[in-house]
Amino acid sequence: MKFQYDDGGRAAAGWKGHTGDCVTRAIAIALEKPYDVVYEKIAAINKHAKGEKTARKGLSKPLIRKLLEKNGWAWTPTMHIGSGCRVHLRADELPPGRLIVSVSKHLVAVIDGVIHDTHDCSRQGTRCVYGYWQKGGNENGTL
Q: Which stretch of 25-29, 35-39, 45-49, 61-65 has the lowest confidence by average pLDDT?
């Protein structure tokens, strides 16, 4: 799978250093929204849900689901308990288009078979995909 370095606009928003912001980054890239807008939305959700004022450590899976569904994205699971790995982070095993892909301890934006992230997280095509988000019926969702 091809890899394109993309920090989702993090540096342009004035952020420096490294952090566990893959949720913010993947959503900003896939939804084509400014990093700071996505960061603030996630921070507000975290503040309401957990009393934390940051988006540095992402969101829980139920809150990611709620946010993305509200914005017109649909979840497609590719792995179930006991099923083993059937889909890998490979262009030929994922559909075309803008995706937010869930892999172990990470979310990554994939656009038309190209990883958009700060590192190549594909493990040379062996990384298992738990599922992915893609635009659903509500194309007019706003963050």
A: 45-49
User: Are the CB atoms for 20 and 118 separated by under 8 Å?
Assistant: no
Q: pTM here?
A: 0.91
pLDDT one-digit tens code per residue, 62-92: 889 999 999 999 999 999 988 899 999 999 9
Beta strands in the chain (DSSP E): 2-5, 73-77, 98-103, 106-111, 114-117, 131-135
- Domain ranges across the chain: 2-135
- The Cα 37–Cα 19 span in angstroms is 17
26-55 burial: b if 16+ Cβ within 10 Å, else e:
bbbbbbebebbbbbebbbebbeeeeeeeeb
